[in-house]
Amino acid sequence: xxxxxxxxxxxxxxxxxxxxxxxxxxxxxxxxxxxxxxxxxxxxxxxxxxxxxxxxxxxxxxxxxxxxxxxxxxxxxxxxxxxxxxxxxxxxxxxxxxxxxxxxxxxxxxxxxxxxxxxxxxxxxxxxxxxxxxxxxxxxxxxxxxxxxxxxxxxxxxxxxxxxxxxxxxxxxxxxxxxxxxxxxxxxxxxxxxxxxxxxxxxxxxxxx
Length: 209
Known about the structure:
This is Proteasome subunit beta. It is a single chain. With 209 residues, this protein is an alpha+beta fold. The protein contains 4 helices and 13 strands. Residues 1-12 have low confidence and may be disordered.
């Protein structure tokens, strides 16, 4: 099992995914820290595009996150070459879950969230623990080191069948409110809104400390 030492880079963040009407959004803060107290970067990428209708976010150990990012991109490209089509979000979630479970006795220190639209433009989101136990839902998923505060904020703000602009406003306010309640998150955020017409990426200004 990997040991976390004094030089280990840990991603400490607030992030979430939300479903809307034929759209889905995924967002994270921008902070990267070492051993919780020290900020290393304020523009660290934690959300990755698998294809234009499917995104993956991860928190945890930075080295494991980059290893898994490369692994999942490789597996998706092989699938695309073999099947001549991109993965559906539910299929990709199964690939992520299986990959993590294979290392269950020496797990990757990551906590993934998957968000995307299927071929019928139906939103799909799920969170997972470090051994790949999935928890799909039809409203929102929260993860990171401030998930307790995020649950309360999202439950009070989220509504069903939000349009893309409304979904952006809701997830942005939830992100800012959640990171404002956690001294280890912050430095603004990045929001991806995925619709059947494309992807819109927006930056959100937040607490800069």
